[in-house]
Amino acid sequence: MTHRQDLLRAFDALLAPERFKDYGPNGLQVEGRDEVRRIVSGVTASRALIEAAVARKADAIFVHHGLFWRGQDGCVTGWMKQRLALLLAHDINLYAYHLPLDAHPELGNNAQLARQLALRATARFGEQDLGFLGERVDGAGFADSDVLATHVRAALGREVTCVPGHAGPIRRIGWCTGGAQSYFEAAIAAGAQAFITGEISEPQAHYARECGVTYLACGHHATERYGAPAVAGHVARELGLEHAFVDVDNPA
């Protein structure tokens, strides 16, 4: 058992949110009960995740996508009311870390995606150094874009969108989880032969073909479902707390 403020300090010490310019508040977004024994982690603070936390009698929820974002109108209606009502009725603390969770070199989304894909990072690129650049752990590389796409598809257990750009073997790979299609140009400039992220927008297909760099969109949720349980599990072990990860399915 630990106090919610001690849990907040543990998350902050690990993820250093003060280093990032982010799209919403990082840390304790909704205050619940003082004492925490059980944490549930997930990707997004959806109603389904909160309901699962209630069923597991959780004292705290740890997520990548919290409730509050820059540009919201601030009205507590509809889905926002429903989520907040559940949290407040059951006195559950909500902790959310966005870019700090992407960036952590060992436990973050990018690092944990690399672990799933058997990649190792050798450099960073892009705004706030959120993009990772590296190669296959065994150094073997991939024979071509199709082989890389097959490898990613098998590792993540879902279909991927692949726009072949690089002709021939692929060794230098850039990646940035979630909605990081805007990092593609920085990955190209950093020397990547392929780029892996969650989403694709219209311009990236043209960049891939014209710049000779393969682009793989593998799902926003699918690429970001590893960091939250890694961080929450790590902190829970340090503080002697119970932890469970709930993966609410999302096709995006």
What does this structure look like?
With about 250 residues, this protein is an alpha/beta fold. It has two domains: about 1-100 and about 225-245, Udp-n-acetylmuramoylalanyl-d-glutamate--2,6- Diaminopimelate Ligase, Chain: A, domain 1 (3-Layer(aba) Sandwich), CATH 3.40.1390; about 110-225, Udp-n-acetylmuramoylalanyl-d-glutamate--2,6- Diaminopimelate Ligase, Chain: A, domain 1, CATH 3.40.1390.30. Helices cover about 35% and strands about 20% of the residues. It is built from ten helices and 13 strands. The protein has helices at about 5-15, 45-55, 80-90, 100-105, 110-115, 145-155, 185-190, 200-210, 220-225, 225-240; strands spanning about 1-5, 25-30, 35, 40-45, 60-65, 95, 120-125, 130-135, 160-165, 175, 195, 215, 240-245. The strands form three sheets. It has a six-stranded mixed beta sheet. Helix 8 links the parallel strand 11 and strand 12 (about 215). Helix 1 packs across helix 10 and helix 2 (about 45-55) runs parallel beside helix 3 (about 80-90). The chain starts with a strand and ends in a 7-residue tail after the last strand. The mean pLDDT is about 100.
